[in-house]
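okkk here we go again. third time trying to get the copper (II) ion bound version out, last two times i messed up the smiles copy paste (missing a bracket lol). double checked this time i swear
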Amino acid sequence: MDAHHRAGVEAFERNRVNPITEGIGAVEAPFRMEAGRRIFELTAAPLRWEVAPGQWADALAYNGMVPGPTLRIVEGEPVRVVVRNQLDQSTSVHWHGQRVPNVMDGVTFVTQDPIPPGGSFVYEFTPGPAGTHMYHSHHNSAEQVTKGLAGPLLVEPRSIPEPAADRDYLFVLNDGLGGFTINGKGFPATPAYAARQGERVRFRFLNYGALAHPIHLHGLTFEVFARDGYLLSQPFRCDTLTIAPFERWDAIVVADNPGAWAFHCHVLSHAEGPHGMFGMFSALYVE
Ligand SMILES: [Cu+2]
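finally!!
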């Protein structure tokens, strides 16, 4: 048992230097500007995705990654997202947390017809409110979303002051594609987080799975300042923050305690078994 535990942690440390799985999720999407509008393209297609070393899952993915690419947009600056469907089933995209015109809300047969296989749809809206949001399929969602058709939608603020941060990290949870994952990967392929001593590190927690996950960081403290993109009137401190499905929480961690700090879901069966850590386990290295 000890040998298995040690091997997992060693693989996690190797992954910091050389990725031990194929594919990285939630990479920032390129865009182009046209007449003051930020334009993105998203293509939904099936994908074989390596969740953990040698463990492949049948994913559904935007632009060939799980989670889908991070769309970074600006409050008040119009966006267009051209969505193409290369799945063998219909789909749609919902802009979770955004106050869009009704016809852009992406709910099939409520606000639009499904995008059929081979079809496309152009979404346009003006981003707001600011903060950490999400986009995801809103058609056959229980399958499509948990298999990967979801991604971060980060709206840079113009109207509200967010706390300053030296680093800005994503911590995206899912429990529907090859087990329990952070940013599309299970331990030991989960992302390791790093900071220099004294830095202010922002974590954006998003959950597109079906279960709530209490995320616990050892040795340091979360200063939670926003929920679903909305700044809290009274930020609070904690060391275990439960992320319910489709919630977004933003927290600052002041990296004032050096060391390798475990950072994991505290439903223990989501993170550790007799063969060592797996699933929702990571670490924050304060160096
Ligand atoms: Cu969990």
